[in-house]
Design brief:
It is a single chain. By secondary structure, this protein is an alpha/beta fold. 49% of the residues lie in helices and 22% in strands. It has 7 helices and 8 strands; from the N terminus they run ααααββααβαβββββ. The protein has a 4-stranded parallel beta sheet with strand order 3-2-8-4. It has a two-stranded antiparallel sheet with strand order 1-7. Strands 5-6 form a two-stranded antiparallel sheet. A hairpin with a 5-residue loop joins strand 5 and strand 6. Helix 2 runs antiparallel to helix 3, helix 2 packs parallel to helix 4 and helix 3 runs antiparallel to helix 4. The chain is extended, with a radius of gyration of 27 Å. The termini are far apart. About 13% of the residues have low confidence.
Length: 178
């Protein structure tokens, strides 16, 4: 084994670090891990807030600290304070599609091909329609998110809150795996 001053220095630094002589490495690792978790939480919360899911976004951020988190929470609160309430279910449009066809080649060469052609759309046909809805201010919402059913089976409407200029659109869409 060749022992040089440089090798001894490196071994000494490694041993010293492992023994905690230069600070607690576990704290540094934990800080890096926490930073990574916070970065992930911020990214997820931004995505949720872009989908107008502010409550969920704030929940993801709970327990995280830092300037970025504070700014994002403030931004979410500001956006949330400007929401418009849709409290009349008769004013909400509904979109229904039969199954979406994932694999047109398979679907249109089957025995049911004519029915698929007559009543269903492919994903490639559907996506431009969906983008047109978004361009016209519609926001897709789950039907189950606007109603509640109590233990007696009574259905009640839950108001929808969206930014001004956005219009809720409930949808029922099934994907046909061929």
């Amino acid at each position: 084994m060749i022992k040089t001053k440089k090798t001894s220095l490196v071994i000494g630094l490694i041993l010293g670090a492992g023994l905690g002589l230069y600070g607690n490495i576990d704290d540094d690792v934990m800080a890096a891990k926490t930073d990574s978790q916070t970065t992930k939480a911020v990214k997820q919360a931004k995505s949720l807030s872009q989908q107008y899911q502010y409550k969920e976004a704030k929940s993801v951020l709970s327990g995280h600290k830092g300037t970025t988190v504070d700014h994002l929470k403030k931004s979410i609160n500001k956006q949330q304070s400007k929401l418009v309430t849709w409290d009349d279910p008769t004013k909400i449009s509904h979109l229904f599609y039969h199954s979406l066809i994932v694999d047109p080649g398979k679907a249109f060469s089957s025995k049911q091909a004519q029915g698929y052609k007559d009543y269903m759309v492919t994903i490639d046909e559907f996506m431009p329609m969906l983008n047109q809805l978004y361009d016209n201010g519609y926001v897709l919402i789950n039907f189950k998110d606007i109603i509640s059913i109590d233990k007696q089976g009574k259905v009640t409407f839950k108001p929808v809150k969206l930014p001004e200029g956005k219009k809720p659109l409930t949808r029922i869409i099934h994907a046909l795996n061929f």
